[in-house]
Amino acid sequence: MAPQMIFVNLPVKDLDTSKAFYEKLGYSINPQFSDETAACVVISDTIFAMLLTEEKFKSFTAPGKEISDATKATEVLITLSAESRAKADELADAALAAGGGPAKEPMDMGFMYGRSFADPDGHHWEVFWMDPAAAQG
Fold first, then answer.
1. Cα dihedral 93, 80, 53, 65 sign
2. Do residues 33 and 40 make contact, with C-beta atoms less than 8 angstroms apart?
3. Counting CB atoms within 10 angstroms of each CB, which of 3, 57, 75, 94 has the fewest?
4. Would you tell me the crossing angle of helices 15-24 and 85-97 to the nearest 10 degrees?
5. Nearest partner of 78 among 117, 121, 125, 44, judged by Cα
6. Whole-number mean pLDDT of the chain?
């Protein structure tokens, strides 16, 4: 049985700007699922972010529903795990250096650590590390 995959679909105002942002974080774009209206960001073997122009995104939504402006309202929190505190910091710092913005203050509970950032369209991303011993209970 193939592993289940997730495709997070995000509306973007400027596809080229958004693609460049995610590439600066070290992610690649899969050209097989990309065109002038969409870009498939490969986060891992099973996690993908589909960047869709607002017009393309609207074609997938229910009729009459507006697209949330992520700079004004939180429509979703997208959370990725990190293999260490240092890796969580590395990704969040890279996002800020690539033109992203801060989303909230770092969270440090000792056994769990997290950082956050907003991409150029305001989508809220979290990256966290949890001590494996704590995760096992």
1. negative
2. yes
3. 3
4. 140
5. 125
6. 94
